[in-house]
Write a structure and sequence with these properties.
Shape: globular
Number of helices: 3
Strand order of the largest sheet: 1-7-6-2-5-4-3
Structural class: alpha/beta
Oligomer: single chain
GO biological process, one term: tRNA threonylcarbamoyladenosine modification
Order of helices and strands: EHEHEEEEEH
Strand content: 25-35%
Distance between the termini: 10 Å
Bound molecules: adenosine-5'-diphosphate, magnesium ion
InterPro entries: P-loop_NTPase, T6A_TsaE
Subcellular location: Cytoplasm
Protein name: tRNA threonylcarbamoyladenosine biosynthesis protein TsaE
Number of strands: 7
Keywords: ATP-binding, Cytoplasm, Magnesium, Metal-binding, Nucleotide-binding, tRNA processing
Protein backbone atom coordinates (compact mmCIF):
# COMPACT_ATOMS: atom_id res chain seq x y z
CA UNK A 1 0.00 0.00 0.00
CA UNK A 2 1.38 3.37 -0.98
CA UNK A 3 -1.50 5.74 -0.35
CA UNK A 4 -3.99 6.39 2.43
CA UNK A 5 -6.53 9.11 3.16
CA UNK A 6 -7.69 10.13 6.63
CA UNK A 7 -10.06 12.97 7.54
CA UNK A 8 -10.13 14.83 10.84
CA UNK A 9 -12.86 17.08 12.17
CA UNK A 10 -11.04 19.13 14.80
CA UNK A 11 -7.62 20.37 15.80
CA UNK A 12 -7.55 17.77 18.59
CA UNK A 13 -8.18 14.95 16.13
CA UNK A 14 -5.27 16.21 14.05
CA UNK A 15 -3.11 16.23 17.17
CA UNK A 16 -4.12 12.60 17.76
CA UNK A 17 -3.22 11.70 14.19
CA UNK A 18 0.21 13.31 14.69
CA UNK A 19 0.66 11.36 17.93
CA UNK A 20 -0.07 8.10 16.15
CA UNK A 21 2.41 8.94 13.40
CA UNK A 22 5.14 9.71 15.94
CA UNK A 23 4.50 6.55 17.92
CA UNK A 24 4.73 4.34 14.83
CA UNK A 25 7.64 6.21 13.22
CA UNK A 26 11.24 4.99 13.15
CA UNK A 27 14.27 7.19 13.85
CA UNK A 28 15.54 8.87 10.69
CA UNK A 29 12.14 9.19 9.03
CA UNK A 30 11.33 12.29 7.01
CA UNK A 31 7.82 13.74 6.60
CA UNK A 32 6.96 16.32 3.95
CA UNK A 33 3.85 18.35 4.75
CA UNK A 34 2.10 19.91 1.76
CA UNK A 35 -0.87 22.24 1.90
CA UNK A 36 -1.86 25.89 1.83
CA UNK A 37 -1.40 28.31 4.70
CA UNK A 38 -3.84 27.34 7.44
CA UNK A 39 -4.24 23.77 6.18
CA UNK A 40 -2.84 22.28 9.37
CA UNK A 41 0.83 21.50 8.74
CA UNK A 42 2.01 23.01 11.99
CA UNK A 43 -0.96 21.53 13.88
CA UNK A 44 -0.01 18.04 12.68
CA UNK A 45 3.59 18.74 13.69
CA UNK A 46 2.34 19.67 17.18
CA UNK A 47 0.72 16.24 17.40
CA UNK A 48 3.92 14.54 16.27
CA UNK A 49 5.77 16.45 19.01
CA UNK A 50 3.20 15.32 21.59
CA UNK A 51 3.75 11.73 20.47
CA UNK A 52 7.45 12.17 21.20
CA UNK A 53 6.66 13.48 24.67
CA UNK A 54 7.75 17.03 23.81
CA UNK A 55 6.23 19.52 26.23
CA UNK A 56 7.40 22.73 24.54
CA UNK A 57 4.78 24.34 22.36
CA UNK A 58 5.53 23.84 18.67
CA UNK A 59 4.91 26.96 16.58
CA UNK A 60 5.58 27.80 12.97
CA UNK A 61 9.29 28.51 12.90
CA UNK A 62 8.74 31.68 10.90
CA UNK A 63 11.97 33.39 11.80
CA UNK A 64 13.92 30.25 12.54
CA UNK A 65 13.74 28.04 9.52
CA UNK A 66 14.81 25.08 11.65
CA UNK A 67 13.72 24.31 15.19
CA UNK A 68 14.91 21.31 17.16
CA UNK A 69 12.83 19.78 19.98
CA UNK A 70 14.05 17.10 22.34
CA UNK A 71 11.71 14.22 23.15
CA UNK A 72 12.00 10.44 23.15
CA UNK A 73 13.92 11.25 19.97
CA UNK A 74 14.77 14.64 18.47
CA UNK A 75 12.23 16.40 16.26
CA UNK A 76 13.63 18.59 13.49
CA UNK A 77 10.93 20.99 12.33
CA UNK A 78 11.74 22.91 9.16
CA UNK A 79 9.48 25.56 7.65
CA UNK A 80 11.05 26.51 4.32
CA UNK A 81 8.34 29.06 3.41
CA UNK A 82 10.77 31.96 3.40
CA UNK A 83 13.33 30.10 1.31
CA UNK A 84 11.43 30.42 -1.97
CA UNK A 85 14.01 31.27 -4.64
CA UNK A 86 16.93 30.80 -2.25
CA UNK A 87 19.27 28.30 -3.83
CA UNK A 88 22.11 27.96 -1.42
CA UNK A 89 23.50 25.32 0.85
CA UNK A 90 21.98 25.94 4.26
CA UNK A 91 24.26 23.53 6.07
CA UNK A 92 21.24 21.92 7.74
CA UNK A 93 22.53 18.44 7.00
CA UNK A 94 24.95 18.97 9.86
CA UNK A 95 22.09 19.35 12.32
CA UNK A 96 19.73 16.69 11.07
CA UNK A 97 20.71 13.20 12.05
CA UNK A 98 19.16 9.83 11.52
CA UNK A 99 18.34 9.43 15.19
CA UNK A 100 15.35 11.76 14.97
CA UNK A 101 12.26 12.64 12.96
CA UNK A 102 12.34 15.44 10.40
CA UNK A 103 9.19 17.33 9.45
CA UNK A 104 9.44 19.74 6.52
CA UNK A 105 6.81 22.33 5.60
CA UNK A 106 7.21 23.79 2.07
CA UNK A 107 9.70 21.10 1.08
CA UNK A 108 9.62 22.21 -2.57
CA UNK A 109 11.93 25.05 -1.55
CA UNK A 110 14.51 22.70 -0.03
CA UNK A 111 14.68 19.73 -2.45
CA UNK A 112 18.25 19.06 -1.34
CA UNK A 113 16.92 18.03 2.08
CA UNK A 114 14.49 15.42 0.73
CA UNK A 115 15.87 11.86 0.77
CA UNK A 116 14.66 9.21 -1.72
CA UNK A 117 12.57 7.47 0.95
CA UNK A 118 10.03 9.63 2.77
CA UNK A 119 6.36 10.18 3.50
CA UNK A 120 4.44 13.01 1.85
CA UNK A 121 1.34 14.21 3.68
CA UNK A 122 -0.91 16.47 1.63
CA UNK A 123 -3.44 18.40 3.68
CA UNK A 124 -6.61 19.85 2.18
CA UNK A 125 -8.92 22.25 3.96
CA UNK A 126 -12.46 20.91 3.52
CA UNK A 127 -14.43 23.10 5.92
CA UNK A 128 -13.55 25.33 8.83
CA UNK A 129 -12.74 22.39 11.11
CA UNK A 130 -12.32 19.49 8.72
CA UNK A 131 -9.18 18.47 6.90
CA UNK A 132 -8.25 15.65 4.52
CA UNK A 133 -4.80 14.07 4.92
CA UNK A 134 -3.50 12.09 1.95
CA UNK A 135 -0.39 10.03 2.63
CA UNK A 136 2.02 8.94 -0.10
CA UNK A 137 5.07 6.89 0.72
CA UNK A 138 8.35 5.95 -0.91
CA UNK A 139 10.23 3.10 0.74
CA UNK A 140 9.39 -0.15 2.49
CA UNK A 141 9.71 1.17 6.04
CA UNK A 142 7.23 3.90 5.19
CA UNK A 143 4.80 1.40 3.70
CA UNK A 144 4.84 -0.42 7.04
CA UNK A 145 4.17 2.83 8.84
CA UNK A 146 1.22 3.48 6.54
CA UNK A 147 -0.21 0.05 7.37
CA UNK A 148 -0.08 0.98 11.05
CA UNK A 149 -1.96 4.22 10.47
CA UNK A 150 -4.91 2.51 8.79
P1 LIG B 1 -0.25 25.62 8.40
O1 LIG B 1 0.96 25.27 9.21
O2 LIG B 1 -0.59 24.59 7.38
O3 LIG B 1 -0.19 26.99 7.81
P2 LIG B 1 -1.62 25.69 10.96
O4 LIG B 1 -1.50 24.32 11.52
O5 LIG B 1 -0.71 26.74 11.50
O6 LIG B 1 -1.52 25.62 9.36
O7 LIG B 1 -3.10 26.22 11.14
C1 LIG B 1 -4.24 25.41 11.01
C2 LIG B 1 -5.39 26.13 11.67
O8 LIG B 1 -6.61 25.43 11.43
C3 LIG B 1 -5.22 26.19 13.19
O9 LIG B 1 -5.70 27.43 13.64
C4 LIG B 1 -6.11 25.04 13.69
O10 LIG B 1 -6.60 25.25 15.00
C5 LIG B 1 -7.24 25.11 12.67
N1 LIG B 1 -7.97 23.82 12.51
C6 LIG B 1 -9.31 23.67 12.55
N2 LIG B 1 -9.67 22.41 12.33
C7 LIG B 1 -8.53 21.70 12.14
C8 LIG B 1 -8.24 20.34 11.86
N3 LIG B 1 -9.21 19.40 11.70
N4 LIG B 1 -6.95 19.99 11.74
C9 LIG B 1 -5.98 20.90 11.85
N5 LIG B 1 -6.17 22.21 12.11
C10 LIG B 1 -7.43 22.62 12.25
MG1 LIG C 1 2.89 26.24 9.44
Amino acid sequence: MKELTIETYSRDETHDLGRRIAQAAKPGMVFLLDGDLGAGKTTLTQGIAMGLGIKRNVTSPTFNILKIYHGTMPLYHIDAYRLEGVHQDLGFDEFLDDGGLTVIEWSEYVPQLVPPCHMTITIELLEENSRRFTFHVEGEEYEKLLEELK
